[in-house]
Amino acid sequence: AQSVTQPDIHITVSEGASLELRCNYSYGATPYLFWYVQSPGQGLQLLLKYFSGDTLVQGIKGFEAEFKRSQSSFNLRKPSVHWSEAAEYFCAVGAMDTGRRALTFGSGTRLQVQP
Amino acid sequence: GAVVSQHPSRVICKSGTSVKIECRSLDFQATTMFWYRQFPKQSLMLMATSNEGSKATYEQGVEKDKFLINHASLTLSTLTVTSAHPEDSSFYICSARPRGGANTGELFFGEGSRLTVL
Question: CB–CB of A43/A99 below 8 Å?
Answer without folding.
Answer: no
